[in-house]
Amino acid sequence: MGVKDILDKRRSVRQYDSSYNISSETLISLIESASKSPNGNNVQAARYLVIDDPELRNGLLTIAYNQQQVIEASTLILMLGDYQAFDKENIINIHEEGFQAGYFDESLRDYLANAAINYYENKSKEDLKLELTRDVSLASMSFVLLANEAGFDTITMSGYDSKKLKESLNIPERYLDVMIIAIGKGTKAGHKTVRHHVSKVMYRNTII
Q: CA 94 → CA 14, 47, 57, 111, 142, distances in Å?
């Protein structure tokens, strides 16, 4: 099934078979592929926190406003952005790995690393938050498409108390929580939704 078919048929599913398990190997494969998503300067800031412990998930239920997929889906993926990805050391190490793999020569390695370091060094916390949100959202969409292609159902969730979530899971401040993705086998299809005609969302050269 192609990407267009997946997008045409995709639904946000809220009811899941709580007895269905997704293997660790399958999750690793999905995340490994999603991690190849586009990201700024290849700093690779997206992090995937797999939450499959029933006790932890029961504790998240009220934090997520009692949305039942929190406890019924096979697992939850908390999509995070790591502010430390913008550190000079990380940028240098990533480009050195690319050089060692033979993807570019020393000159291009140094150019790319320095360009990335200079790009991020004077950005504000809000600027970096936007960078993380953008990159993690791209990775999240890739994960959803890959999961749907593999025959699973998903729903992306922003409806939760961010502060309480991070406290409950002991997530350090270096991480930005962007969304939760519930994944599993749905027991009830998500309802269809109306989308704007392309003429309402597409502009050319200027926007009014």
A: 38, 16, 34, 13, 22
- Assign residue 63 a region (left: φ > 0; alpha: ψ between -120 and 50; beta: otherwise): alpha
Q: Where are the domains of the chain?
A: 3-83+124-201
Q: Which CATH architecture has domain 3-83+124-201?
A: 3-Layer(aba) Sandwich (3.40)
In one-letter notation, the amino acid at residue 96 is E
For 151-165, the pLDDT digits (tens) are 999 999 999 999 999
Residue at 172: amino acid letter = P
Mean pLDDT in consecutive groups of 10 residues from the start of the chain, 208 residues: 88 95 98 98 98 96 97 98 98 98 97 97 96 98 97 97 97 98 94 92 92
- Please tell me the pTM assigned to this model: 0.95
